[in-house]
Every structure is written in structure tokens, then in C-alpha cells.
Amino acid sequence: MIVEAPPIVEALxxxxxxxxxHVLKGVDLLVAERExxxxxxxxxxxxxxxxxxxxxxxxxxxxxxxxxxxxxLDRRTDINRARQRIGMVFQSFNLYPHMTALGNVTLALRKVxxxxxxxxxxxxxxxxxxxxxxxxxxxxxxQLSGGQAQRVAIARAIALEPRVMLFDEPTSALDPELVGSxxxxxxxxRESGMTMVVVSHExxxxxxxxxxxxxxxxxxxxxxxxxxxxxxAPQHDRTRAFISQIQRx
Amino acid sequence: MTGWERxxxxxxxxxxxxxxxPDILYGMVVTIELAVLVVIAGITSGLVxxxxxxxxFRPFNWLLIFVVDVFRALPPLVIIVLIYFGLPxxxxxxxxxxxxxxxxxxxxxxxxxxxxxxxxTAVPRxxxxxxxxxxxxxxxxxxxxxxxxxxxxxxxxxTSAPSPSPRERHSVPSLRCLRFSARxxxxxxxxxxxxx
Lengths: 249, 196
Ligand SMILES: Nc1ncnc2c1ncn2[C@@H]1O[C@H](COP(=O)(O)OP(=O)(O)OP(=O)(O)O)[C@@H](O)[C@H]1O
Ligand SMILES: [Mg+2]
Hints:
The complex is a heterodimer.
Chain A: E1 9-18, E2 21-31, E3 36-40, H1 47-54, E4 62-67, E5 70-71, H2 79-84, E6 86-89, H3 101-113, H4 117-130, H5 146-158, E7 164-168, H6 176-191, E8 195-199, H7 203-209, E9 212-217, E10 220-225, H8 227-232, H9 237-247
Parallel strand pairs in A: 3-8, 3-9, 6-7, 7-8
Antiparallel strand pairs in A: 1-2, 1-4, 4-5, 9-10
Chain B: H1 3-11, H2 14-54, H3 58-73, H4 76-86, H5 96-122, H6 125-133, H7 138-159, H8 166-169, H9 171-181
Helix pairs in contact in B: 2-5, 3-5, 4-5, 5-7, 5-9, 6-7
The structure holds adenosine-5'-triphosphate and magnesium ion (MG).
Adenosine-5'-triphosphate (ATP) binds near residues 44 and 47 of chain A.
């Protein structure tokens, strides 16, 4: 008998309005533990907004979000504690420019987790080591390449030992030759069993690493399935049009 | 007396200089004291206001913006006079020095608040999101992530903040004159104006 583990991310009936703009129109997203879900869709379809609703950077207008058993929308939830379990990586890195790489990684360890400076630095160096940048610990973001900066941002998130990692177009701002180093780190994370939700257009990575691809359009999930199913045999016209469009370049 | 001698006697009279230089020195010391105290109070309170404004509590912010605009718009001398002659009607009788310090601090507070606030708003949204997504609270993100970057941006404009200028600091002696000419224990600007 197979007992299905409860999903680690359970977002149901998510709606999001920005004023009159209805950006998410009832999205259900369930993510199992250790699963890598890949989210694709045209610009403006609501991918980032959905991701940001999962850690409540954006407050959904309606729906429920439960992550690792914690009701993210309950007012009684300590949102700062809850967010510690959900790492997020942004398209524009968002490293703190006035701190070193190590300072970026240790800030939340000290302020949120309450580690001493020495403990935080040991954990921070270990996290930088994981992304291959231990030797850049003393560099500031301005002294790092885009690929290195994004890896430091990943280290900043994984240092907190999150249960889920959210990636919002992590390689879109990078020069093509730097994309590989970030994807390699993401693949290593995946192999270590991290649950990941990735918004990206890196189809090669999706084919190689994703368990499931979700196609969004106009605030709704249009279809989802294995990478093979979505990329080779999409069921909906909109999916087909989108796939052929991004494969053209 | 030749014209040249008269000129020297008028502007470089050694006897007069000897008599008044201690007063001038004293005035200079007062001016420097005042400037230091105004800068400390004005910058600190301006920073506190900008941080409070970041909390985004609407009614408070409307009030804050109004107060800041008033102190930026009114000529400092008007504020000094209002404090010096107005507060006694509330049974508070600040000295000329304190009135001037308070007025100029309020003016600098208003300008500093605007400068700090513009620095805070100039920090990209992504910095807030990075901080909050790692579990930092609003206050931790504001003080640990956003403010250090805002301060770096605001130090250049702050050094050229338009106040307090020496012209306004000289209002201290003028207040003393006003007080001398007013009746004791009753400050009223009208007391110095001859009644018809
Ligand atoms: N804070 C906001 N205020 C108002 N409108 C917003 C806000 N954030 C997003 N939107 C709008 O919501 C819609 C969906 O935005 P979102 O960023 O989720 O799209 P996306 O699928 O991530 O697109 P992209 O591929 O360009 O990143 C867009 O029309 C966008 O303009
Ligand atoms: Mg987006």
C-alpha cells in the first residue's frame, strides 16, 4: 500500500487582485516533498505573483496557502519564522550591496535564527562552500559576477535550511555563459532532495531536472504534466503556441 | 581728520575693538554651541521621523508631512519669534538660546526627514523582499538592510542641508534685544511697537 505523503506546499484557490487587475484567478498548486515543479508561461501570466503568494510577500486576495503544515495566511502565524523555512531566489539577486558575501549569508542566521557571530559564520561559510564560493566570502556583491552573485543569493537562502526553495527566473538576468554555474548549483540542490518551485524558461534544465511542468496563462494553470508531456505533446493550443515560441530561440 | 582717517576711525577703531571683542568672541562661542546642538537634535529627530514614516501608518504620515512642510516653508525667524513669544502663553518661557535652538532644530529636522525619507524610498524594493523572505522582521529589514543603504545615499545631500544658516543663528542677540525692550516677565512683540 502506498501512502501519499501530504504535500509540503498546498496552495488552493489562490486569487490575487492588484486594484482592478485580476492577476491570479483561482490557482491550485500542490507540491510534494522532494519534488521539483517548473512553472512556465507568458510574461504577465502571474508566475511571479503566484510564487510570492507562497511566502506571503504578496497577500493573496482569496485562497489558502499551507507550507510544511503552517497556514501562511493565518494572522496568528509567526510569518518571520515561517518564511525561514521557505527560501527565495530572485531574478535580480537582491544581494545586500553594503555587506560582503558572508555578511549576506549570515544576516538572517544571526537576526532570525539567533546564532552567535561565530556559529553564523561557520554555517555561512559552509553554505558558500556548497555553491562553490567559499573563497569569495569577503567580496562585496559589486565585486562578483552575476553568476557568482546569484549563487551567493542561493547560499543566503539555503543557509537557513529551508524546507522549500522558490526560484523566480534565477538565470534570466545572467549572461548566457554564466547560466550554467547557477543551474549546476540548482541541480546539486535538487539531488540533495530539496523541494523546489522554479519559474524559468530554461527548458534544458526543466527536461533534465523537473518532475512536473506547470504552464500558466492569464492567471490560471492551463495544463501540467511531466516535462516530456508538456514539451512534446501539449494538450492545449495556448501551451503549444507558447512552447513553440520559446523553442524558436 | 582726513577722509582716510575718518574711515579708519569708523571701521577699525582700536578702542572700540578692544572694548567689544570679548562680546564678539562670546557670540562666536554661542553660535558654535548652538550650531552643534541644532545639528545633533535636528538630524536625530529627522531620522526618527523618517523611520516612523516608513511604518506606513497613514494618518500619522499625513500629520508628519504637514508638519514637515510647515517647518520647511516658514522662515526660521518666524518660527523663532513664534516660539519665543508664543510658548509663554502656555506657561513655558524658553530663553532666547533655547527658543532659537528649538526653532532651528525643528527646521533641520524637517529637511533631514525629507532627505532620509528620500534615501529610504530610493532603496530598491528587492532589498526589502530579500530581507523579509529570509525571515527578517519589518524593523530588522529597515534597520539592518535598508537604512544603511539609505544613509550612504543621504550623507552627501545632508552636508549641504540648507539650514541653519548663520543669518538665523544671529537671531539670538536680536531676541535678547527684544526681551530687554519688552516689559519684564511679559513677552509680547507688541510691547516693542509704540502704541498710537
Ligand atoms: N505590485 C503590483 N502592482 C500592480 N500590478 C502588479 C504588481 N505585481 C504584478 N503586477 C501585475 O500582475 C501581472 C502578473 O505579474 P507577474 O509578475 O506575476 O507576471 P509573470 O508571469 O511573473 O511575468 P514575467 O514573466 O514578465 O515575470 C502583470 O500584469 C503585472 O503587471
Ligand atoms: Mg515574473
